[in-house]
Amino acid sequence: MRVVAALTLLSGAAGLVAPRMSTILHSSRDGAEIGRKRQLIRAKSQELGKTLLQKAKERRPSLVRGVRRAVSDFRDVVTEVTDYTIASAQLSRQNLLAWAQAFGALAACAAVGAATASGSAAAFPELVGRFGAARALSARSVMAIFALGFGIALRQNKALIGRRGLAPYHKVLERVERNRTSTWSRVEAVPSLLWLSKNRTDSALTIVASLGLALSVPCALGGALHGGGRLALITCYALYASISNVGGPFYGYGWEAQLLETAALCALPSHPEWGGVLALRWLAFKIMLGAGLIKLRARGRTSDGWHDLTAMTTFFETQPLPSPMSRRLHFAPRQFHLFATASNHVIELFAPLGLLIGCVLRILPFSGLRSVGRSLVVFYGLVHVLFQIALIGSGNLSFLNYLTIIPALACFDDAALMWLLGLAAPSNTGPGLRWVLNLPLALGSVAFIAWLNKPVYENLVGPARKDGTSKRQVMNGSFDRVVSVRRLCEKLRITPPSRPLNLKSLRLANAFGAFGSVQRTRDLLVIEGSRGEADDWNWREFDFRGQRADLNARPVVLAPWHWRLDWQLWIQACKGQNGTNDRWFLSLLLKLLENDPATSSLLHANPFLDSEPPTHVRVSQYRYAFVEPDNGTEAVWTREPRRVLVRPVGAEALREALRT
Fold first, then answer.
1. Which of 15, 200, 246, 378 could bond 169 through an S-S bridge, CB–CB 3.0 to 4.6 Å?
2. Intra-chain end-to-end CA distance of the chain, in Å
3. Peptide bond into 500 cis (omega under 30)
4. d(Cα 387, Cα 385) in Å, to the nearest integer?
């Protein structure tokens, strides 16, 4: 109960500690009085603990209700997961065998996790429970992803969201200006430094991306939590958010919000360590469990491919950008596909429960249970990381899987990382004056994160409740979080907004999920151009980087690089006829008719670039399928036409369509 009380009163603790710490700071200039001041700090900490316990007693009824609701939610989710598992296993003997194999593999990982935890604790007992190495590695990894993201922006943004791009960013800002009158409301809707650009030129995009690249690369190489590294991390968050918030469809992927949230959590105070560690573990938990539950709650148990364990029979072929391994995985035996699908469920639905139980056991005052809890946490970290590595090898999912590894690093303390990787922890002064001074900030930050994630929690557990309040789970979304900043503005002597601000657009707390349904066939868009007439079109296909016109071209490794246009073309193909009506897609057709150099730079090859541009373009839908390897031919794909989605159209007709 004491632990629950402390977590509930985090925000109140910040107010209690701050004035006392200020007094100590001003009176500790004389080095001879350090010992006395430390005793004073200890006394004040004890006083704070007594105050927290007193307030906990006053709020005990609400705490009891909260604990009971959390236990009930846990029971409902576990019931939902177990019912789904049993129903899936009962479909056939092959399914039952696949589930048994998946649980066996998870048990083997649990044994490895326990061995890692016990071995590292025996080898480095002084490093158990310290997370300096994990926090530093997480921050550096985030900065590396930022560097990649800014590099992608410099390479592609002019053609995608520049003034003459497919989805110009300045039109996003202009639309907000028409609908909102005050500066506060505009920034609330689209938080972006690009508001400061008067002319909103491509140079503004270049400056933002270049500054982000210049800040992120040194921090990724030298450590993002040393010196001004944390300020650089926060600055990179602001710079990347400035681009992604105006990026339209090309920045509408779930991993954009995930990168921003991960960066915000990595910027939490290093001392005390538990605040940032718990926040990152919560991020890993909700990413994995959210992905599992979105599959469990798919459209229909008999048609979605997840319930009957057939999802992987088509996933490797129909995923956005297959990798070199995808073809062979697609033609693997059926039992392997059933095992892979069942393993996906076990990892995403059952392993996170191990993390949750492990974190609870770690706070209990019994050494044996604490040791078991550490083993469960390490076990989950290993499963999480190995699962993402497997996904990296089986497909080109941009930098998503690399990014998803980062929060799981918080499952490994310095002893485990030294045991596994030989990674030494950075210099750490340990508990002391710095720890106590950061305590109010850490407590306030954790309380703020908990408040932000309340709707995320409801989104996860709500659909499983039996009380009639269940709602449909949201995948890859943010939620309204309204806060008043009037007092802060008054202290800063600036004009406050007319109403409380909504923090949703900052994307600090998000719901995640991936592949709630799997495509059963690979139907792609093929764009062709011609300079001929109706009786002799002589169509020539535009060759994209992720979707090659050459059916003999083997899939290549693209991740973690992100070809945004190719991903968006795959999404448009999933929409069918509706996918060809979007404004950016019509702009793409017009740019191809104009032989636009920036747009052509995103393609693998433009057959008209070195000659006269085409007079007409058309869009057809083809059904692709892998050719079985080692069949004596060089063919990788076979395809057959399905339908024409956009009949031959010229530049003038497209301009008219864009005007209207």
1. 246
2. 63
3. no
4. 5
